Amino acid sequence: xxxxxxxxxxxxxxxxxxxxxxxxxxxxxxxxxxxxxxxxxxxxxxxxxxxxxxxxxxxxxxxxxxxxxxxxxxxxxxxxxxxxxxxxxxxxxxxxxxxxxxxxxxxxxxxxxxxxxxxxxxxxxxxxxxxxxxxxxxxxxxxxxxxxxxxxxxxxxxxxxxxxxxxxxxxxxxxxxxxxxxxxxxxxxxxxxxxxxxxxxxxxxxxxxxx
Length: 211
Ligand code: BG6
Ligand code: MG
Hints:
By secondary structure, the chain is α/β, with parallel strands linked by helices.
């Protein structure tokens, strides 16, 4: 049986992935760039500034803006995003997550959060689940964001466990790569992992017992 589990946040614990999409899409429109949900898949798990670079690349506008202007654009997106997530509550937990967290706690399985989001702690607080986590990665302190191993490695060290004692859960290819680079087994939600699931509904403690 695993001793720990490392969760991604956006798209795994709650559906904030959709709010990131809306906020980026609006910002992009303002500067003359349009993109759809298919392109949005390539932004999942990717840091705020890297997401902006990928959006600008759609129209080869990466050199049009100074670093300060890019920071202002990213800030604007984040302000819009924060408004969208301001009303989320525990009702916005994805199916099965609350039950799983309770089962993990009851069985002394350690729990970490490995999100690329600098809004992660605020979202956990909104969802009223912060106290479940034994360790929360501080994205602002991670040198290389996903797909680099740093985020999941920091979570692993934070839990004081070895790679083969934990499992990582992700909804983004960048995150699955990060998990793989740490030699941790992965569960992909709507994305290919060592185990692939179509919904968090399938992510049960009984399933974890079989790993
Ligand atoms: C990831 C999301 O969890 O966090 C990305 O999947 C997002 O879409 C990234 O860009 C950074 O989030 P934030 O909240 O710091 O802008
Ligand atoms: Mg995610």
